[in-house]
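Lab notebook, bench 4. We co-purified these components, and the gel suggests they stay together. Before we commit to crystallization screens, I want a quick structural picture of the whole thing.
Request: model the full complex, all chains together.
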Amino acid sequence: MSNPNAIRLDSVSKSFDGFKALSEASFTARWGEVHALLGENGAGKSSLMNIAAGLYAPETGSLFIDDNPVRLKGPLDAAAQGIGMVHQHFKLVKPFTVAENILLGLRHLQAGTYRQRLAQTAEQITAMAASLGFSIEPHARVDQLSVAEQQRVEILKVLLAGARILILDEPTAVLTDAEAENLLTTVQHFAHQEGAAVILVTHKMNDVMRYADQVTVMRTGSTVASLKPQTVSVGELVKLTVGDAPTPPQIPSSRDAGEVRLAVRDLRSSGDAPALRGVNLELRAGEIYGIAGVGGNGQSELAGALMGLPEPVSGEMELVGEGDLNSLSAARRRELGIACIPADRYSSALAAPLSISDNFAMGDVHSGRYGPFWFLRRKRIEADTAAAVAEFDVQGVRSLQQKAALLSGGNAQKLVIAREFARIPQLVIVHSPSRGLDVRATLAVHERLRSARDAGAAVLLISEDLDEVMALADRIGVMSAGRIIGEFAQPADRQAIGQAMVNHV
Amino acid sequence: MDMIASWIGNIPDFAVPFALAALGLIVIERSGVLALGAEGLMLVGALAGIGASLMTGGATVWALILAMCAAGVVSLLFALMVLVMRINQVIAGLALVFFCQGLTGLLGTLLDWTNKPVAGLQSLSLWPFSELPVVGKLFVQNPLVFVTPLIFVVVVLVLNRSVLGLRLRAVGENPQAADAAGIPVLGYRCAAIVAGSMLIGLAGAYISVLSTKMWIADMVGGRGWIAVALVIFARWSPWKALAGAVLFGCIEALIPQMAASGIRLPQYFVFMTPYAVTLGVMIWVALASRDSSSQPGALGEPFIREERR
Amino acid sequence: MFDTTNFQPLLARRYTLEVRQQMAWYWQAQVIALALLVGMLISAAILVSAGVPAGELLNEFVILTLFDSQSLRAVLFQAAPLIMVGLAGCLAFRARFWNLGLEGQMIWGAIGATAISLFEIGPPSLRLPLMMVCAMACGLLWALAPVLLKLHLKVNEIISTLMLNYIAINFLLHLVYGSWKDPRDSFPYSPQYKVFERLPELFDGVSLAVVLALVVALFVLWFTGISRAGLYLRFVDSSPGVARAVGVPVKRVILGTVLLSGALAGLAGLMITAGQEGRLTHSFYAGYGFSGILIAFLARNQPIAATVVAVLVATLFVAGRSLQVFYQIPFSMVQLIQAILVICVASSEFFIRHRIRRIQGGQV
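Here is the predicted assembly.
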């Protein structure tokens, strides 16, 4: 390893069906360093690394390993070159055991019966895990493991296949603070002691400042800077990442909350491992109640239950003055001004192949505004949609007939809000509103939520992004293991909240 | 007593086509490809088996092998449709069935292979079992009946106790994971389609060459569809499919017995039984277990590496 | 820091597959037309190798069937039930329901109508409308079990509808070979319908069946395009999860649409028995099941397109029959041609939905 450069990407460009994800991006990582690839959502970090890992083919540009030009025909080639990538969405076969998953990718174990090879794999797993400082049961089924453990399996998989260039795509997104620290320390050790090159794809400044030796900043598909994080301040790093300095998040005003609008009592899911284990909360008019917590503690199930998914839950969700939330028909919910903004736009809010006006129409069609059953008033739908698109600044609409899928993440979110807020909302339930959105779009969404609150709505914000919750909420509840285990009024102590998030009651 | 003995003796003859077809379907579906074309592939195997038998003047084993190959070749069309063209797998399966029905109907008439009897295979007697009372006839069957359990054993071993099988199952559960591990997803699926189809073709050939010993248009009569249902309620497990096939064999074997026994039952109602039982079992299975956790995770979804998520 | 000199082309020519987001409809139509052409050429090749002189093909398919007024009438007459099953297919598929039971529903429709005729229910003036209502009701009921099973128990409807098909077929045989057999001769069919029980010819030899089919086509157009149900169906078809979340009464929509599909198929059954045959026969339904699916597929579930495609399929049927008579080509040829067309059009969708991109190294 006389050559210091482990991997080099030169002027790589890539488009997806007309959308330019990467334009002339360049990146160099050296042996023995932890190199962070920093950028906002949508900056192109994952795309660039997917090219390095052989999953995508670049349109233009070159790839060098140890300064030798290399052509990758697929992930197998990348693995042969010693490149291993751990993705955000794990590529594990859930019903298989850890050993079976890893055996899948091991090409050098050719000899012996199946049983023997499996046993050999198990041995290698235990050995490698020990050298990294943790233990794992090789014959456990992957779907029985926790998320952090599954991530470790992914890392083992990649290392046992011989990776010397380790790429981690947003690894701490699904971990608690403690688990994240554990992981990053481990990979740092792997780089510094073993001489491997570790590339950390992330949008978290803190991780970069604490663990990276070098950071390359990406913005809208290009690499804008590469420097040592120790030489700059966090503020400068943020500026490089975001471009113009964004307006600083507002401190939520301490308004007097009004009467209770929504009362949730002892909400429980059914089954062996219920996601909800007795959620209790009260939501008042004129406040934003933010539910913070690490992902996977029941937030999605709570959102689903409140938004009307037909999941079996016991307990009460009472809309004060109306009765059970779930007993309301869609038309009635609309009438009462209940607005729902789910996390996953295209699986719960918008039908991707249908037109923008069709999607918008579903807001008010039940009330009869768009005609009786036997006649749909298209003109009125078009007019309403056009007005809403203008008012809520939904960009990229060439025609109201175009498929909703063509809208970018931020604009799709704005469309959902436009539909839900078409009538003045009284109760807003929103889950991870800024997921996948860039800074500008996020600010716009936050603005809408605040003005809804200021107009007297009761807003329930469920988000795994603590920054978002801190910036918006008047009151913060911490969700852990299917329950709200603590409530904090603003101004809240971030450390205390972080502690609460990690303590599993 | 005689009736029961001859009913039992007939069961394998009816069970084997279901068993082989179901096994073939399981191989294909474990790789993540929804295979509805069994009915068509069985017809191809049936016609090809008869045709080969007629043309070679009775070399039955070769005829069976040729039938398997014919089904394998036709399955390449299906593989082309679902793997390369990424056609919706339900439509591709239906189109395949109708294509095969049309093709076999046409060729059967044009090549004058219809209604021509063939010799089939000599039955083998498994002495001393064949001397047992009542169940003795169970052990006097044509050789393919005895070979079928062996085929099952081989397939199960490959699926569950070999790296090849592991990779195949991975392709069916999570093709992205398999791809990332460097497994050629499309290659494995294609191989599974051809291999499974050969088994299905063999099932069809059994019906025409060994059982009925002639070709009549559309002679598979829905058994391919029943095999599809069998796989669903066997939860993609080969041994459960075998059990289901035996069950259906029992039912189908009853039909000629009823006629022979002189019991007065409306004939066509008796013919309805396999289909009604299939429907009944589907309902029963749906009632008994409302989870489909044994369904291969990626069943029915085409695989494209660069689909931006 | 960034080395932009000394480019080296990394990848030589290479092809990769990308998903397209949208293609303008006129391009789509062109691609489909091309696919149909390819399919027909393949079919023509098969026909020629089966013994039909190539010159005769054009004669048969185009000239005789479309320009001869008698066979044009035959085509239209044949088209009526095909339009019905095509529309039935369109409706069911829009609800994401694979209704393969069209033949079974047709059979029950015909049985219901025949029952009214045989048991002489109702006065002669009302007999035919009563038969129509009964046919629709029977078809609808035969579709009830599969859709309920799917909605409440998630039973795969492909299997359930197909099994019910086979059961219906056997029941039909039971009737026409048994208690409903015409005592006058030994053929497996029911006694003839009386004159007032048959679909009359309206004008210029065009049967009521054709008019009925067109009226139903307009009804389906209204249902899917103008009524609110059409909007609901679009959601159910494209994203059932989203449909539920935005308040579409998914179960009711699916149930209503599938029952409607069954009713239309039942009516198609009546059109054949009270139209072409004049009695309940043992194999009147043959080929209509797949044709219905084919028509809906080629027409992309659009009612007007389905009507047009149905007429083309009717042409195929009529031409197929004369091929059978004059050249001894078995009727399964028609099925084969239909399958080839489906495969070609389905394959062409590949080009609509994907783009094949060539990758080249070097500067853009």
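The mean pLDDT of chain B is 87. Worth comparing against the SEC data before the next meeting. Chain B has one domain: 2-121+140-288.
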